[in-house]
Please model this.
Amino acid sequence: MTTNNTYDIIIIGAGPAGLMAAAHIQHKRVLVLEKGATPGKKLLISGSGRCNYTHEGDIKEFMLRYGLHGRFLKQALYQFDNKKTIQFFEAHGLGSLTDKNGKVFPETDRAGDVLGVLMSICRKNEVEFRFDSAVKSVAPSEDGFVVETFDETYHSRGLLIATGGRSYPKTGSAGDGYRLAEQLEHAVIPPKPALTSLLFSNFEFVDLSGVAIYDKQLSLYRNGKKLYDHRGDIGFTHKGLSGPGILDFSRYFESDDVVKINLCNLPSDELRTLIIDEGKNSGKVQLKNFLKGFDVPESLVSRLLQKIGVDEKTTLATIEKDQRKQVVEWFTGFSFTIEQVGGFNQAMATAGGVSLEQVNPKTMESKLVKNLYFAGEVLDIDGDTGGYNIQAAFSMGTLVGRGIGR
Model:
């Protein structure tokens, strides 16, 4: 074992989780191996280059932002929550700003400044970096791990795999961590795109591109059975559906699933009764105007009534029973059969990854291999849009770094 290539901890991946871990380790010999020529490539493109690195919401509400896996992150998020993250960067000279939706950005609006803080702390801690160093293999040794790149062999007492997922592979997130985890006999939940749009080869509502609907109830059906409910904003594009409501829900999507959008946010029986009652009391009101009252854009109302075959000038008093049935069905269950979701080139996150059952959520240490850690998107964790994924990476990285530092 060569002394120069022996470290207390080797971190694979210079993304937000790996860098935050390194920033919290002092007085130890730390090596970060990064396959790319520079660190933080995905961090630099986040938030369209502005880096929406967390959210201002209550930390308890964060637990609901990671699908079925929020509980796993409880320890990490509470130890290094969104407020502590903001304070961390402020303590190193980088203030924050919060937009109207609660998204938190660096005050400079530059992702590079977030990366700059992390790299500055790492340099102060004398962390060593090797770029253009893709890891070929990892294996346990008598006193730790052997890590082989295509050019060199390294040894360490501890190992952190923080390689990210598979989204935006041009940034280096090609799923390398899954292969390394499997070399160490860990199970990997098959990765799939998350935070991505619904796409259709011949989208019949292309004429509605640019139209948005807000805070609508969505339901996901598979083989006729409802699996999940969600609520959020939805946007029509020239290829399909997007917006936070679709992006956040996409972690569950599979081909041939059916997504139903409740445009009125009412049960079908309630909408039916309301149309009948309003027809008796305000019979001259046009159906189109009545439906617009549920915060449904006029263009969408007109388009759906046209598709159903109902004249938009029809009044509540004159609508026929069969027509009313169609209106209720379409406006409480506007349905799309999933043809495809955006691939890893478009997805902002990855669902799936290293099984959480084999990782201790209090330390991020493997339950199978001592001194082996995982952090960030390489794990079977994906958050909603709005800063939740980067916050999770920062929180997990901090948990690992502090644990190793102790």
Q: What stands out?
A: The domain at 3-192+350-405 is CATH 3.50.50.60 (FAD/NAD(P)-binding domain). The chain has two domains: 3-192+350-405, 197-342.
